Every structure is written in structure tokens, then in C-alpha cells.
């Protein structure tokens, strides 16, 4: 059997190499931008808005549509839309008296697409959370 101290040293060295690689891939600014994107999506209402915009595909969705679908007052929806827009998750266009939104292509769309299309992975995650909760009781 291997020496536990030796094993820890190997793990630490592997982590050092992996982290060093990640720091070559992502700058500190990029970590900040990615964190802001994920933070913007880290609210149930904003996540629902992103799902709605994803399901609309390439169609623009007006604020009134989102209000009707979620049953949340327009001022609250507007606040959430502002957060999503500020983080680059969504974009908007004004059409006469209406402001319409769409999910931005690239990473925001890919994140939402992955969550929606890989429901099995999400169910596994939920199961692991339940198991962890029972272990900590």
C-alpha cells in the first residue's frame, strides 16, 4: 500500500499542474466575467427568464410575455432583465412601445441549452444532494 503522505503529495502536484493550466487559459478578468455571468443566472426568476428566451429560439420576447408567463409584476421582471442584460446573458431591442429580449448566442445560450437538454445530469445532481444531506444528519 502506498504511503498516504506520498499520495497527498502526488495529488497536490496534480492539482498544481491543473490549476496552473487553468490560469493560462483564463485570466483574472475572465474569471470575474464568468463569475458575473453565473451570478446573473443564479436566481430562480432569472433562470426561468433565460429558459423562456431559450425556448423562443430566435424570436424576440417582449416584457409583457414574460410577465404573463411568470405571473410576476412588470417592475420585478424589469429588474431581473436588467441584471441579465448587464451580465451579457441577454440583449434587447425596442420596437415602438415594446422592449423585446433574446438570449445571447455563445456561452449564455450554451449554459441554458446544457441545463435543459441534460436533465438526466440534473437529476443525478439532485440525488447526490439528497444523499449528502442524509449523510450530514
Protein described:
- With 137 residues, this protein is mostly helical.
- It has one domain (4-135): Arc Repressor Mutant, subunit A (Orthogonal Bundle), CATH 1.10.10.
- Helices cover 71% and strands 10% of the residues.
- The chain has helices at residues 4-25, 28-41, 44-55, 63-70, 74-86, 107-117, 119-135, and strands at residues 61-62, 90-95, 98-103.
- A 3-stranded antiparallel β-sheet has the order 1-3-2.
- α3 (44-55) crosses α5 (74-86), α3 packs across α6 (107-117) and α6 crosses α7 (119-135).
- The longest helix has 22 residues, at 4-25.
- It is elongated, with a radius of gyration of 20 Å.
- 12% of the residues are buried.
- The mean pLDDT is 90.
Give me the secondary-structure topology.
Layout: H1 4-25, H2 28-41, H3 44-55, E1 61-62, H4 63-70, H5 74-86, E2 90-95, E3 98-103, H6 107-117, H7 119-135
Antiparallel strand pairs: 1-3, 2-3
Terminus-to-terminus distance: 33 Å
CATH architecture: Orthogonal Bundle
Helices and strands, in order, run as HHHEHHEEHH
Domain tally? 1
The CATH homologous superfamily is called Winged helix-like DNA-binding domain superfamily/Winged helix DNA-binding domain
* Largest beta sheet: strand ordering: 1-3-2
Amino acid at each position: 500500500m502506498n504511503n498516504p503522505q506520498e499520495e497527498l503529495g502526488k495529488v497536490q502536484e496534480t492539482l498544481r499542474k491543473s490549476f496552473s493550466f487553468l490560469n493560462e487559459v483564463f485570466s483574472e478578468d475572465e474569471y470575474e466575467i464568468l463569475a458575473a455571468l453565473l451570478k446573473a443566472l443564479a436566481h430562480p426568476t432569472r433562470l426561468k427568464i433565460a429558459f423562456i428566451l431559450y425556448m423562443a429560439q430566435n424570436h424576440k420576447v417582449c416584457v409583457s410575455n414574460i410577465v404573463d408567463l411568470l405571473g410576476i409584476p412588470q417592475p420585478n421582471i424589469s429588474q431581473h432583465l436588467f441584471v441579465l442584460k448587464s451580465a451579457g446573458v441577454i440583449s434587447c431591442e425596442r420596437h415602438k412601445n415594446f422592449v423585446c429580449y433574446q438570449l445571447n448566442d455563445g456561452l449564455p445560450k450554451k449554459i441554458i441549452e446544457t441545463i435543459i437538454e441534460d436533465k438526466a445530469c440534473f437529476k443525478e445532481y439532485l440525488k447526490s444532494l439528497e444523499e449528502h444531506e442524509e449523510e450530514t444528519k
